[in-house]
Known about the structure:
Layout: H1 6-19, E1 24-31, E2 37-44, E3 49-53, E4 58-65, E5 67-72, E6 75-80, E7 84-87, E8 92-96, E9 100-107
Antiparallel strand pairs: 1-2, 2-9, 3-8, 4-7, 4-9, 5-6, 5-8
Amino acid sequence: MRKSSLDALARELLKRAACAPHGRSAETVYGGHEHMLRQTVLALTAGSSLAEHDSPGEATLFVLRGRIRLHAGDIDWDGLHGDLIAIPPERHSLDALEDSVVVLTVVKPR
């Protein structure tokens, strides 16, 4: 068994994101290429974003800190601390409305 403090990791990633030119920092906490399930903690400073990209498969975002906005087509979803958002299976983007940390959970198709 492996245990991680997502709160401590969130603090560390926000510090890294503040120093990064693109305002982002991420670390995979479970899974990876050899697993179907992958969980990645992603920190974004206020005003930074992830440009529009294809859906990674079945995925969710859990907001650990801050406030984010997920865009997909003509629809936007705002997420606050504690919110869980199912990512639609289409191209989408993510904006940090304030310093934010999310947990991205992805299940890759077989």
